[in-house]
Design brief:
single chain; about 300 residues; alpha/beta; D-Maltodextrin-Binding Protein, domain 2; 7-stranded mixed β-sheet; 10 helices; 11 strands; about 45% helix
C-alpha cells in the first residue's frame, strides 16, 4: 500500500525555517541558498494547498496551519534522527567490546597498554568501565576482570595473573633514607590498602624474622592507583602489584626495595557473561591480556 507522503526534503526545510522563523538562517543551517529554501516551502504549501508562513516586512510568522503542523513535524524529525543514530550505533557496537574492570587495573595497566592491544585487534574498539554490580555476569559487559582470592573454587583457566606485590618507595625518599634491609622498611610510614589491611602484616611477618616494633602506618587508600600516587609524592612505602608498578620502576621514578616480591594469595581473573560467550573475539582478547600480563 502506497502512502501519500508530502515531499520529505520539504518537511525538513519547513522544520528548520519554522524553528528560526527565517529563510536565511534556515539556508545557513542546511548549507543551501535562501532561494532553495523558499522553493521547498513553496512546494510544501502547494502540496498542502494552504500557506504555512506569513511573509511580512516585519519578518516571518507561522500561519495557523503552520503552528498546527510544526509540533508534529518536529517530533517526527527527532524520531527519524533518533532511529538513524540507533542503527548507526548498533553497527559501531558490533565492533566494540565492553571491558569492566577495577579502577587500578584500567588506569595503571589496561589504558597504557591499549594501543598495543589494538595492534592485535585493529577492527575492534574498546569501552572500559569500572561499574560494580551484584551480578556482573548479567551485565552488558563482554569481559569482566576482578581481583579475587586464589581458590580451588575459581576456574584456573580464567586466571590472568597471580598478584605479586612489590614494596616501592619514591626515588627522592629513598635517597634521603635508604632501605638496605627488610627491617629498614619500618623507618618509613607504610601506606595502608584499606580494603586489604592485612597485606602489610603478612608481608612483614614473612620478611622480618625477628620480633619487630609496631609499624607506623600512613594514610590509607581504597585503590592501588591511589596508593601509587601517594608513593610518588613521597608519603611512604606502598605495596603494589608488580605489573602495575613496573613502568615507573623501569623509569626510575619508584624503587623496588631489595627486589622483594611477595605473593599475596590473590589473582586477577576474567569472566564472560553467558550471553556473550559466543563471541570468539572476547576469548581471544582474554588470552592476549594473559600473555601480556605474563610478560610484564
Amino acid at each position: 500500500m502506497r502512502h501519500n507522503f508530502p515531499p520529505l526534503n520539504a518537511l525538513k526545510v519547513f522544520e528548520v525555517a519554522a524553528r528560526h522563523l527565517s529563510f536565511s538562517k534556515a539556508a545557513e543551517e542546511l548549507f543551501v541558498t535562501q532561494g532553495a529554501v523558499s522553493k521547498q516551502i513553496q512546494t510544501l504549501e502547494q502540496y498542502l494547498e494552504q500557506p504555512l508562513f506569513h511573509r511580512e516586512k516585519g519578518g516571518l510568522h507561522l500561519t495557523d496551519a503552520g503552528k498546527l503542523y510544526l509540533p508534529t513535524i518536529s517530533e517526527a524529525m527527532e524520531s527519524i534522527q533518533s532511529a538513524t543514530a540507533l542503527i548507526k550505533q548498533s553497527v559501531a557496537d558490533s565492533n566494540a567490546l565492553l571491558i569492566n574492570t577495577t579502577p587500578s587495573f584500567s588506569t595503571l595497566w589496561l589504558i597504557p597498554k591499549l594501543e598495543k592491544i589494538k595492534e592485535q585487534f585493529p577492527d575492534l574498539t574498546f569501552q572500559v568501565t569500572s561499574t560494580h554490580s551484584d551480578n556482573i555476569l548479567s551485565t552488558e559487559s563482554d569481559l569482566i576482570i576482578r581481583c579475587l582470592p586464589i581458590s580451588s573454587s575459581q576456574d584456573p583457566d580464567s586466571l590472568l595473573v597471580e598478584e605479586e606485590l612489590v614494596a616501592v618507595i619514591s626515588q627522592e625518599r629513598f635517597k634521603s633514607s635508604p632501605v638496605n634491609t627488610a627491617a629498614d622498611i619500618l623507618n618509613h610510614p607504610l601506606i595502608l590498602h584499606t580494603t586489604r589491611p592485612q597485606l602489610w602484616t603478612s608481608f612483614l611477618n614473612h620478611y622480618i624474622a625477628e620480633e619487630y616494633a609496631s609499624p607506623q602506618f600512613s594514610d590509607g587508600y581504597e585503590h592501588f592507583f591511589m596508593s601509587m600516587e601517594a608513593v610518588k609524592r613521597g608519603q611512604g612505602i606502598g605495596l603494589l602489584p608488580s605489573f602495575l608498578a613496573a613502568d615507573l620502576i623501569d623509569k626510575g621514578e619508584l624503587v623496588n626495595l631489595m627486589q622483594i616480591k611477595f605473593m599475596s594469595g590473590y589473582g586477577y581473573y576474567y569472566s564472560v557473561p553467558i550471553h556473550k560467550r559466543g563471541n570468539t573475539k572476547v576469548v581471544e582478547l582474554a588470552q592476549c591480556l594473559k600473555a601480556m600480563l605474563t610478560d610484564s
